[in-house]
Amino acid sequence: MTTIETPAAVQLFIEATNRGDAEAFAAAFTHDAVLDDWGRVHHGRDGVRAWDRTDNIGVQAHFELDAITRGSAPDTYVATLTVTGNGHNGTGPMIFRLRDGLIASLRITP
To answer: Into how many domains does the chain fold?
Structure first.
């Protein structure tokens, strides 16, 4: 696995989570973003904010980036993150699709 430079939106996603900055976290996403967390799908920034409250900053999640690679589709990246906090804990892939420098979709898979 070859690690590449982390795109700014993915870096903001990680940093905003780690410092508990919900506004910066939501700002990393497009207005029409789709976030799919193991089949639970959230739409738009309001959906992203709702997920953030229940599954991310709201449970004091902390991310460590283990690796990031280009995905199979254009503007897609696969980040392997270790997650700790008071919610889900573990290591796994998150698939980001970017548009105009922001996260247009995020798929969290088992």
So the answer is: 1
